[in-house]
Amino acid sequence: MKAIERYVFFFGLGYHFFKLGSLLDSSFFFIVSIFLCVYLSLRDQLFLVLFMIMCLTFVYVTLIEQQNKSSLRPGEIQLDATIESKFKIDGDKMQFVSSYKDEKILVTYQIKTKAEKASFQKVKLGTSFTAVASLEQPSPNRNDFQFNYQTYLKRAGIHYIAKASNIELGSVKHPTFFQRVENLRHAIIQYIDRTFNSEITPYIAALLVGEKGLFDEQIFSQYQKLGVVHLLAISGLHVNLFVSLFYSVLLRFGITRETSRIILLFFNPCLCALSRF
């Protein structure tokens, strides 16, 4: 067995006992595996570096998980905050992420009128708002081995859902860089929705900025059942096509190859951010 294979084997064995065994046995096997990993690492500097990175990652993830707790309690609250991220309108339901007492919360609201929906569709991230809401914990999944919404939100640092009874919008207050990128992405989606034929609009939005919300639910469900929904997702091939096209355009305008490559270094992250790649 090669050194790296032994390294992975012993650490994996120890971690397995650490997760599944009793406290005494798991700790013993985990400590033994750590010593074996150190022994193997000392024989090679690369393994030593990898081992240190692994330990630091393990400690960091453990600390983050321990701090992922909430001090909030269920009840009615008065919100005076800003719309931070994950803004979404689905039919007459609206939701977004905001903060309350320095904790992330998911704000949900049922839109009452068409005029209200039209005004909310113009909302940008960073917009201030006031609301009266009921703070509740998300429900865990009722069936085993199915999607657990509570766990999903917890991994995003969200422990409570604020169900708003009314929302009053304010002005945009100094959006962050990422909020500006999301606002630009939202503006592109709205432009696509207004400009192109309704039959091709969902495909353009999906392949250009990774937005699948414009698809009809039945059509999107059929794609999922057929197992071809991945064709509507942004992939490395799409990014490569966009980059190649942009690179060709730069060369057509007489920009040198060296300068074009430097421009691409800034273009690629922007493209990935807009498409949520």
UniProtKB/TrEMBL annotation:
It is a multi-pass membrane protein. One of its GO terms (cellular component) is plasma membrane. It comes from the Bacteria. Residues 29-168 form the DUF4131 domain. It is found in: Cell membrane. Keywords: Cell membrane, Membrane, Transmembrane, Transmembrane helix. Residues 207-268 form the ComEC/Rec2-related protein domain. This is DNA internalization-related competence protein ComEC, N-terminal part. It comes from Listeria fleischmannii FSL S10-1203.
